[in-house]
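Appendix B. Extra example for self-study. Work through it before the problem class; the solution is given directly after the inputs so you can check yourself.
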Amino acid sequence: MTFTCPAPIPAKDTVLLGHGSGGQLSAELLRDIFLPAFANPVLSRLEDQAVLEVAGARLAFTTDSFVVKPLFFRGGDIGSLAVHGTVNDLAMGGARPLALSAAFILEEGFPLADLRRIAESMAQAAARAGVAVVTGDTKVVERGSGDGVYINTAGIGIVADGLDLSAAHARPGDAVVLSGAIGDHGAAILTEREGLSLEGDLRSDSAPLNGLVEAILAVTHEVRAMRDPTRGGLAGTLNEIAAQSRVGIALRETAIPLHAGVRGACEILGLDPLYVANEGKMVAIVAPECADAVVAAMRRHPLGAEAAVIGAVTAGHPGLVTLRTAFGTTRIVDMLAGDQLPRIC
Amino acid sequence: MTFTCPAPIPAKDTVLLGHGSGGQLSAELLRDIFLPAFANPVLSRLEDQAVLEVAGARLAFTTDSFVVKPLFFRGGDIGSLAVHGTVNDLAMGGARPLALSAAFILEEGFPLADLRRIAESMAQAAARAGVAVVTGDTKVVERGSGDGVYINTAGIGIVADGLDLSAAHARPGDAVVLSGAIGDHGAAILTEREGLSLEGDLRSDSAPLNGLVEAILAVTHEVRAMRDPTRGGLAGTLNEIAAQSRVGIALRETAIPLHAGVRGACEILGLDPLYVANEGKMVAIVAPECADAVVAAMRRHPLGAEAAVIGAVTAGHPGLVTLRTAFGTTRIVDMLAGDQLPRIC
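Solution. Structure tokens for the complete assembly:
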């Protein structure tokens, strides 16, 4: 009997950090493994939430796991983030959140005091968003097999009547509306992780967007798509919309709000804020005649005070996002292959 | 400026493996941390699924994370287990499963071939249960911060009309019906993990129970409670029902089916099969006059061929589960504080 020493598996045949980035590697994993296995028309729509007919109503259903590092950061923690993330995925589908689940994977030795603090933060975030945590689960893994705590939240909600939202619905001429400054969450996490102390009040924008969505839908239902630019940032989100709608998107750099602290952090760390994650911002693609009304409605809401039209959907260069820079040049804003920042949410 | 060396946190103030056991420590975590934080009437019912009124229908909603080790085992893998676990939590609430979510936490370096195998197994399990995976998420953590793959599934379903199931609804005189032999899943996992090779075909019973539930509900709706005895085993599940219904439960050991391989494994490993996890068995508490019909309906189904009445609900010794042994003595079947077997699901 002989034993053969198994050859190591080449890195290209294993999971890479970039597979969790929300960029091209994530898209490949979906295309090559998950979509072929789970093939069904709801999943294949590739929205941030599934929408199902239930008892005559349109039910939205979504899930997200959270592995953010560090667990506590300026502007939030893994608990509030886990609530906001799922509330926002429902809200981006035009759904009023009804209920959340919360499932914890805890590492042996994790301080119960920290777990209590996280649970309380989740509860506060849920109360602020007007949604209850109605079911849950806890698993424990041995010391060294986890990283303190991982949280999954799933959520259900009811989609408002008369809405037909999809990342595939953008049309040439539509306006691209952004609810506020970009990159706050990612920049806050990264400076915290790197131990940088920068000037200014750099903090995560983690927040529930369902109230802001209600404010928009109160003025118009002529919204084609709504997305929260989390992993992959504004660039990732707009590339997805451009690809799925087979349209171009032309942005104006000077119109995109950016806080000074984030600008500074990105300069020091060599990051492009267009790719940095947000957890309390949204993009709406709206009919051109409704753009001013949507911006005005956003600005009346505390989470949309810096809302602006940042560009337009074009018939030219379908699938591409371009940026007219402050210098007057135009560049392509591509989708990143992997990650600028792993474990941002 | 002086620095104080922080004292280590006493183990009692940290997460222990037993907190994930489904036993007393799990109950304490729920009582001391999660219930106070998330206080709401749906969660406080402590069922395996939340039931919400949506558009006039009763919607069941549940979540579970899976951290089973090893990932592949005789009779299943983490993928099929993740589907069955959530399908079964819905089915135990009398709900027809509508849709599942699937969220993956992958460790950097995990072989993509294994991920594909797991995804395909999930898809097959979902097809067998007649339910679609409609939404998902993938996160990646660095090498050493996870354990290959953790999966969360959440599920939604519609509760059949005319049912009023609850672990608090058992009444003295009710029959305790078990769908088949106990301990198969836990014994299979543990022998695999310990590298034991035992005689007989020891394999997990992991299976979707929604078809079996449909078979029961076709003959009667006089069912008080249904539960799948997973973590904590049959003993854990019946202790929960006894506590929540404030009744006693008297079991007859000779009536409880047990496969020879599981009996052998438990003897070698020093385990009590009453506490060993099942992933394809259910307990139904039913009105006494319906017991025979429920057993007959179960036996006509492939997953209920060994169904039997294993005991009765009593007015005496409320909150306690007792077992009349094969020797004719009676002993108390208590709830375990911690775990016999960590990471069984």
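Self-check: Chain A touches chain B through 82 residues (CB under 8 Å). If your reasoning did not lead you there, revisit section 3.
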